[in-house]
Design a protein that fits this description.
64 residues; alpha+beta; two-stranded antiparallel sheet; 31% helix
Length: 64
Amino acid sequence: MKQDINYEHLRPGNTVSGPVMMWIVDCATYGALMTEIGIVPLAVTTNVSINFLSKPDATSALIS
């Protein structure tokens, strides 16, 4: 999954916001799981955690 980054996705300090990063991870994981196990009615994410080890590059797309 790929998300192009623009100024709307940035926080002060020219870094990509956490919610944007969580969104791409959640969507990619959901797609991978549904591909593997099939469509499950009312499947939802109950917990997502990210450890921010470094600031993402704000000039290129996020790929998950």
